Amino acid sequence: MSLRPAWLTFRRYAAATTGMTLVLFSLGVYTAATGSGLACQAQWPLCSDQLIPALTINPDFIEWFHRAWAMVTGFLIVGVAGWTWLGSGFDRRTKLAATLAVAILPLQITVGAITVTLSGLVPGGYTVSTHAAHLSVALTIFTLLGLATIWGGGRGSARLLRAAAGIAVVGIVASALFSRAVPFLTYAPPAQAAFYITGLAGHLGLVATVAYATEAVRSGYAGLDAGTAGTVRALAVGSMGALVGTLLLGRDLVLYTAVWQQVNLVALAAAVALAAGSAWTLRGVEPDGPSSEPIGGD
Question: How far is it, in rounded angstroms, from Cα 18 to Cα 25?
Answer without folding.
Answer: 10
